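Saturday, quiet lab. Running sequence design on the structure tokens for the scaffold JK sent over.
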């Protein structure tokens, strides 16, 4: 079969420029000179398929659109809170950040509503499988274990608790990223990632990025399956885009099943749903948010490409009861979202979804948030 052509959205703005106006900004001459050099060096926005030419202006026209001012909705990429400190840490580690968030301007309903709730993790550092025999999602725990071992080996004996987890909670979670959630998903593991704790310090962040980026090979199954890794780029598959796993969204479903400590005991009034709620609380979500959530539990997956819970190889020393979970929160939650005993090795990894209607788990009718 030949290669299939791809289509990309395109907009031609014509001769009229697009202005981004900061009316209250009053930079001094030195700052203006530095800003001018930065702006003129911009070659594209978002992707190399969107070339632009930029310059710094003193007298822009009056704004025609203001955040919260009504009119059409504009979705713009913007820096997340604390982004400056993170970028500086990444620069010191000589690694690109790959972090950010999408903010919707002009939708007053969103601006007046509650902000998305975050769990224990704030961002991802993603490595793609550049070469090596592909493995299915059922091996996610094994791949995550090998990835953790490789990162700690790269960090050396001076590795901090943020990496190895001894004495610090939360710490880095090591994930295998599977191709799940859309009609043609096959469940293959396309890369690995480190989920960074939301409360890590600048020094910890720099150490995490340096150690993760230093891993270029994984020896899986005793070296029988060697993988070559490299940092994921911005134009790669959606599975390797951090935003795919961060959301935010009200509805989430498991790519890999949640591990529970044991079967619930009816004599104690325990249920699977109640034990899953406790897993969410242990994962750092507010109790009131978890109590109001609608939770479905099943051995069958809720996402295309995922496999039944019983087919997963649990990480070492984490034998437990495994179930796939779909949860609908009352408010948006920002990921990465992980829950259960195996969450620090990517078992219990959720992906944001949207559904066209109510479906049974066997129909696997979940669509990934685009």
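Result came back. Writing it out in full:
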């Amino acid at each position: 079969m030949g290669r299939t052509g791809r289509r990309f959205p395109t907009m031609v703005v014509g001769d009229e420029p697009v202005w981004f106006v900061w009316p209250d900004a009053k930079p001094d001459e030195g700052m203006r000179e530095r800003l001018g050099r930065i702006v003129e060096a911009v070659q594209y926005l978002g992707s190399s398929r969107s070339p632009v030419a930029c310059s710094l202006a003193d007298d822009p026209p009056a704004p025609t659109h203001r955040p919260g001012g009504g009119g059409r909705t504009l979705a713009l990429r913007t820096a997340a809170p604390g982004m400056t400190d993170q970028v500086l840490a990444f620069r010191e580690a000589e690694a690109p950040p790959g972090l950010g968030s999408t903010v919707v301007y002009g939708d007053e309903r969103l601006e007046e509503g509650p902000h998305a709730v975050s769990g224990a993790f704030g961002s991802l550092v993603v490595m793609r499988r550049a070469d090596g025999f592909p493995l299915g999602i059922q091996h996610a725990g094994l791949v995550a274990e090998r990835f953790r071992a490789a990162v700690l080996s790269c960090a050396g004996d001076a590795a901090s608790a943020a990496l190895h987890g001894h004495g610090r909670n939360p710490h880095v979670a090591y994930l295998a990223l599977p191709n799940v959630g859309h009609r043609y998903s096959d469940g293959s593991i396309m890369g690995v990632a480190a989920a960074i704790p939301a409360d890590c310090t600048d020094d910890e962040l720099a150490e995490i990025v340096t150690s993760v980026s230093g891993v270029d090979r994984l020896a899986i199954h005793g070296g029988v399956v060697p993988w070559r890794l490299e940092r994921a780029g911005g134009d790669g598959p959606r599975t390797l885009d951090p935003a795919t796993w961060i959301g935010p969204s009200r509805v989430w479903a498991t790519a890999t099943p949640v591990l529970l400590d044991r079967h619930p005991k009816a004599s104690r009034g325990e249920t699977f749903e109640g034990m899953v709620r406790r897993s969410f609380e242990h994962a750092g979500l507010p109790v009131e948010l978890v109590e109001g959530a609608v939770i479905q539990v099943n051995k069958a997956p809720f996402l295309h490409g995922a496999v039944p819970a019983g087919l997963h190889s649990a990480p070492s020393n984490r034998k437990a009861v495994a179930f796939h979970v779909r949860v609908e929160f009352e408010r948006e939650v920002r990921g990465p979202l992980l829950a259960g005993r195996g969450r620090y090795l990517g078992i219990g990894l959720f992906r944001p979804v949207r559904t066209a209607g109510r479906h049974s788990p066997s129909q696997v009718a979940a669509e990934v948030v685009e």
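Notes for JK: Residues 10-64 form one domain. The chain is about 20% helix and 25% strand. Ask whether to fix the surface positions before the next round.
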